[in-house]
Amino acid sequence: MNRPTALVPRHYVAIGGRGPEDVVADARGRVLTGVQDGRILRLEGLTDPGAAHVEVLTRTGGRPLGLHLLPDDALLVCDAERGLLGVDLTDGTVRVIADSVAGERLRFCSNVVALSDGTVYFTVSSRRYPLEEWIGDLVEHTGTGRLLRLAPGGDEPEVLLEGLQFANGLAPSADETFLVVAETGACRLTRYWLTGPKAGRGEPFVENLPGMPDNLWRGAPDAPIWVSLAGPRVPPLDLLHRGTPDVRRTAARIAVRAPFRPSGTTGVLAVDDQGEIVHHLTRRRSGFRMVTSVCESAGHLILGSLWEPGVAVCEAPSTK
């Protein structure tokens, strides 16, 4: 792993809503995000805080998390309350694409990507805990996360992988032969093969990450996969995960009732398709906490957060 370098903030932009959990950039460098009250926002001019503009595109009626832009002016949304949604960005119309799998209601949908053939893949972080109790799943280490697939034109998702530790961000390889899935609770990235002799199998891709990976973002096939780190590794939590299920469940019940404050250590990574870390940027005692997403826009890194009421604009690293 490369030695970490400084994550250099340029400025902060308040967006009039709390918890821009995922940030994605469109072809014009505008950034889309969803906030706690259900609004989908489009942010422009972020590199100049005095000129930044926030536009409300629609409301999902739930809690939007992961986003994926489609080429036909449409947006896929993982909504923690409503399931997988589609948004027409021309008029703001919201429709439910999938809200159940095998008769079980989808809750805590986390992140989504669509490949060139129209197939949609998305993650479910937990089958036991809702979004507002996310810390309970990380503490109990339930392993109830899933990777799902929705065929073009289909209406019933298919479960591809189960037993994931808080399945979260999702990104394709450059040639779309595999997907990379972030397992927040295991501090690792997992590869799921779509083609070739290992098709349909999952395997470790990058293990022992320095923090808990959240959303993933890839701006172009020749660009690396950016990985947000929602927080640093917590040694007592690693130790607890080796405890018995009863001990973990008891600890989880305590955790969901206890006050939570994110760590002041934040960071992001960039990895290539060989699983090599090409950038590791970190900042201690950061005023912007719990980085749950990162994307590139206009030569800068834009950070989102489940915790903050705005986004952070940071320097992008030099190309390697």
TrEMBL record:
Domain Strictosidine synthase conserved region residues, every copy: 116-196
InterPro entries associated with the record: 6-blade_b-propeller_TolB-like, Strictosidine_synth_cons-reg
Protein family membership: Belongs to the strictosidine synthase family.
Coiled coil regions in record: none
SUPFAM superfamilies, per database record: Calcium-dependent phosphotriesterase
Protein name: SMP-30/gluconolactonase/LRE family protein
Gene3D superfamilies for the chain: TolB, C-terminal domain
Any single Pfam family the record assigns to this protein: SSL_N
Keywords on record: Glycoprotein, Phosphoprotein
Biological source species: Streptomyces plumbiresistens
